[in-house]
Design a protein that fits this description.
Blueprint (H helix, E strand, L loop, with lengths): L1 H6 L4 H19 L1 E2 L5 E2 L1 H12 L1 H16 L12 H5 L3 H21 L3 H31 L4 H8 L1 H25 L6
Antiparallel strand pairs: 1-2
Helix pairs in contact: 2-3, 2-4, 3-4, 3-9, 4-6, 6-7, 7-8, 7-9
Length: 189
C-alpha cells in the first residue's frame, strides 16, 4: 500500500526535470523574430519537454512556465511578463500551450507512447493551441480595435506558423528520442 501512495508523489528528480522544462521553454521563447505573433523557438521547447519528460511532467513544466511569467519573471517572448501579457491578444497562445500539454498527456495515457501516437497527440495539440489562441486573439483584438475577420487572424497568427511548427515538432521528437536514454528518463504518462 505504501508503494502505491509513494508512486503518486513527485520525487525530487521529477521536480528538477519540471524546473528544467520550464527554464528551457523560457530560454527558447527569448529566441524570437518579432511579428504580429512572434516567431520563437518556444513551441520547439514545448514539444521537446512533452516528449522528453512525458505528459504529466511536461504539462506541469508548461504550467510552471506560465505561472513564472504571470508573476512577473520575463520568461515570455521578447523578455516580457505579467498577467497583462496573458490577458493580451497573444496570451491565448501562451495559455494554449497548457491545453496542448493536456491533450498530449491524455492521448499518450490512453494510446501509449509510440512515435505515431506522439506525433498525432502533438498535431492535435497544435490544433487545440491554434484554435484557443485564435479565438482569444479575435476576442481581445475586437474589444480593443473593432471587428476582425477569422481569415485575417488565421493569416496573421496561424498560417505562417504551421510549417515551422511541424518542423519544430519533428526536430523535438527526434532530439527527445535521442536524449531520453542518456537522461535515463522514466516517463510519467
Amino acid at each position: 500500500m505504501n508503494t502505491v501512495h509513494e508512486s503518486k508523489k513527485f520525487r525530487t528528480i521529477d521536480l528538477v526535470y519540471m524546473a528544467f522544462g520550464a527554464v528551457l521553454i523560457a530560454i527558447c521563447s527569448w529566441i524570437s523574430i518579432p511579428t504580429t505573433v512572434p516567431f520563437t523557438m518556444q513551441t520547439f521547447a514545448v514539444f521537446f519537454v512533452l516528449s522528453a519528460l512525458g505528459g504529466k511532467r511536461g504539462t506541469l513544466s508548461i504550467l510552471v512556465y506560465v505561472l513564472l511569467g504571470a508573476i512577473g519573471l520575463p520568461v515570455f517572448a521578447q523578455f516580457t511578463s505579467g498577467v497583462g501579457i496573458l490577458l493580451g491578444s497573444t496570451g491565448g497562445y501562451i495559455v494554449g500551450f497548457l491545453l496542448m500539454g493536456l491533450t498530449y498527456w491524455l492521448m499518450i495515457r490512453f494510446l501509449g507512447k509510440k512515435t505515431w501516437t506522439e506525433m498525432l497527440a502533438m498535431i492535435i495539440g497544435m490544433v487545440v493551441l491554434y484554435s484557443f489562441g485564435t479565438a482569444w486573439y479575435m476576442l481581445v483584438y475586437t474589444q480593443a480595435n473593432g471587428s476582425i475577420g477569422l481569415a485575417t487572424v488565421l493569416a496573421w497568427c496561424v498560417i505562417p506558423f504551421i510549417v515551422p511548427d511541424l518542423i519544430k515538432l519533428s526536430l523535438a521528437l527526434l532530439l527527445a528520442r535521442r536524449l531520453s536514454p542518456a537522461l535515463k528518463l522514466q516517463h510519467a504518462k
